[in-house]
Design goal:
This protein is α+β, with helices and mostly antiparallel strands and 455 residues long. The protein has 2 domains: 304 residues, 2-methylcitrate dehydratase PrpD (Orthogonal Bundle); 123 residues, 2-methylcitrate dehydratase PrpD (60s Ribosomal Protein L30, Chain: A), CATH 3.30.1330. It is built from 20 helices and 5 strands. A 4-stranded mixed beta sheet has the order 3-2-4-5. The longest helix is centred in the N-terminal third of the chain and has 21 residues. The C terminus is likely disordered.
Length: 455
C-alpha cells in the first residue's frame, strides 16, 4: 500500500464515536478556530477579500464571517479559511510548524453546514483532519519550513481528510481525495517576509483545495496515490529528507488533536518563547522597565528569518516583530490585539524599549526546533545586575496548555467586541457543553452580524 492508501484505510475505518478526551480536544480546537475567525472578520484584508468575491456571494448554503451574504461551499471554505488566519490567533501543531485549524476546520465546517450535519459529525471529521495533516507536517520538517508555509502546503491534507471523513468515503476514495489535494499544495514563505496580505490566503486556498478534492473523489475522480513518496512527488519536491518511516508511529493510540498549541499572544508563534521568558523575568524579579539597560534574546533560526522587523509601521509587521512584541509583553503584561494596532505603533515608550532589545542566533534553540520552541533571555539593568532565563516552552503548548477558562477568556475577548457578549456566550456554550446541535446553529451566531473595527 502507498502512504496515502494507508491513510485512506485509517480514515474509512475510524471509530464512529470519539473518546471523551478527543471530543473535548476537538471542541477546544473548534472554539479557538471560531475566535480566530471572528477576530479576522472585520480586518481590512477580510473586507477587501469579501468585496473581491461580490459576484460569488448572495446564494448558497454556507456562511462567511464578516458578511451577511450566503455563499457556496468552495467560496465559504476559501473565505473563512483566509479570514481565520488573518489575526494570527489560530492554533499550532508545534512539531510540524503548522496551523491546522484555518484550512481544516474552515473546509469541513462549510461542508457540514451545507449537508445539514451535526456538531458531533463535525468534531469527528476535524479530529481526523488534524491526525492526518499533523503527521505529514511533522515528518517533512525542518527542511520544508525553509521555503514553504506549512499551513498552505500541508493544510490541503487536513481539509481533504476531514471532508472525506464527513462524506463517509470508502478507503480508496479517501486516498484519492488526499492524492488530488497533494498536487495543489502551495504556499511560499516569502509571502510573510514582507508586508503583504497573501499569507492568510494560503490557508484559504488549502481549505478550498481539500474540500474540492474530497468532493471530486466522491464522484470517482482519482489521484496519484504515490504522490507523497514518489520520485517526483510531494516529499521529493518539498523536503530534503522526509521521514516517511515515522509517519504512522503509534497512530490510533494518542490523537494529535490533544497535542495542540493554542495561542496566548496575538502574533507569530515564533515570538512566544521570548515573550513568555521576558515576562517571567519581569515578574520573578519585580523589574522596573525604566531600569532596563538591555534585553538580549537568543532565538532559533526561524525567528530571525521571520520575525526580524524593528519599529513596525503596520499591524502585519508588528505581528512579525520580536522586538515590538517582547517590548509590549514587558510593558503591558500581554500581547493581544491592542499591541499590534496602529495606535500603538510608533509609541515612544515601545520604541525606546525596542532599541534596547537585541536578537541573536542561539545554536541550541535552533537545534531543538521545531519540537521545542525555546528562547534564552538576559535582562541587564542600569546598575549592572543581569537576570537570565531559558524559556523551554510557550504557555499554550501541550506541556504548558491553556486551561479551558483561559481559552474561553481569549475567545470572549476576541468575539464579544465584534458579535456582542450575548452571542459570544451562546456560541461558547454550544461548542463546549455536551450538546449536539446542527452546525448551522453555530454560524447563526456570527455570520449575520457585520463586524465593526475594534477600538
Amino acid at each position: 500500500m502507498t502512504l496515502l492508501e494507508q491513510f485512506g484505510l485509517f480514515i474509512a475505518s475510524y471509530p464512529e464515536n470519539l473518546s471523551p478526551p478527543d471530543e473535548h480536544a476537538a471542541r477546544r480546537a473548534l472554539l479557538d478556530w471560531q475566535a480566530a475567525l471572528i477576530a479576522g472578520s472585520d480586518s481590512a484584508v477580510a473586507e477587501k477579500l469579501i468585496a473581491s468575491y461580490a459576484t460569488d456571494l448572495g446564494y448558497g448554503p454556507c456562511s462567511v464571517a464578516g458578511s451577511s451574504s450566503a455563499a457556496g461551499l468552495r467560496v465559504a471554505a476559501y473565505l473563512n479559511g483566509t479570514i481565520s488566519h488573518i489575526a494570527e490567533f489560530d492554533d499550532i501543531y508545534r512539531n510540524g510548524a503548522y496551523h491546522p485549524a484555518a484550512p481544516t476546520i474552515s473546509a469541513v465546517f462549510s461542508l457540514a453546514q451545507a449537508r445539514g450535519l451535526s456538531l458531533s459529525n463535525l468534531l469527528r471529521a476535524i479530529t481526523l483532519g488534524y491526525e492526518v495533516s499533523t503527521r505529514i507536517a511533522e515528518v517533512i520538517q525542518p527542511s520544508h519550513y525553509q521555503f514553504y508555509h506549512t499551513t498552505g502546503t500541508v493544510g490541503v491534507f487536513g481539509a481533504a481528510a476531514a471532508c472525506a471523513a464527513l462524506l463517509q468515503l470508502d478507503e480508496k476514495s479517501c486516498a484519492h481525495a488526499l492524492a488530488t489535494a497533494a498536487t495543489f499544495a502551495s504556499g511560499l514563505q516569502q509571502a510573510f517576509r514582507s508586508d503583504a496580505m497573501t499569507k492568510p490566503m494560503h490557508a484559504g486556498h488549502a481549505a478550498e483545495v481539500g474540500l474540492h478534492a474530497a468532493l471530486t473523489a466522491a464522484q470517482g475522480m482519482t489521484g496519484a496515490l504515490d504522490i507523497l513518496e514518489g520520485a517526483a512527488g510531494f516529499g521529493a519536491a518539498m523536503s530534503s529528507q522526509p521521514r516517511w518511516d515515522e509517519l504512522f508511529f503509534e497512530i490510533g493510540k494518542t490523537s494529535r488533536i490533544t497535542q495542540m498549541t493554542f495561542k496566548n499572544h496575538g502574533c507569530c508563534g515564533h515570538n512566544f518563547a521570548a515573550i513568555d521568558g521576558a515576562m517571567y523575568l519581569i515578574k520573578q524579579h519585580a523589574i522596573d522597565y525604566q531600569k532596563i539597560r538591555r534585553v538580549r534574546i537568543g532565538a532559533y533560526q526561524a525567528t530571525l528569518d521571520v520575525c526580524a522587523y524593528r519599529h513596525p509601521t503596520s499591524a502585519f509587521e508588528a505581528k512579525f516583530s520580536l522586538s515590538h512584541t517582547v517590548a509590549c509583553g514587558i510593558l503591558y503584561g500581554a500581547v493581544r490585539e491592542k499591541s499590534v494596532q496602529v495606535e500603538r505603533l510608533g509609541q515612544e515608550l515601545i520604541r525606546s524599549l525596542e532599541d534596547r532589545i537585541e536578537l541573536v542566533l542561539d545554536p541550541q534553540a535552533t537545534a531543538l526546533f521545531p519540537k521545542v520552541r525555546s528562547a534564552k533571555i538576559a535582562i541587564e539593568l542600569l546598575d549592572g545586575q543581569v537576570f537570565e532565563h531559558h524559556q523551554l516552552t510557550r504557555h499554550g503548548d501541550p506541556d504548558d496548555p491553556l486551561t479551558d477558562d483561559e481559552l474561553l477568556s481569549k475567545f470572549l475577548e476576541l468575539s464579544a467586541v465584534r458579535i456582542g457578549p450575548d452571542r459570544s456566550n451562546q456560541l461558547a456554550k454550544i461548542i463546549m457543553q455536551h450538546v449536539n446541535p446542527l452546525v448551522s446553529e453555530l454560524s447563526s451566531r456570527w455570520h449575520l452580524v457585520k463586524s465593526s473595527s475594534v477600538k
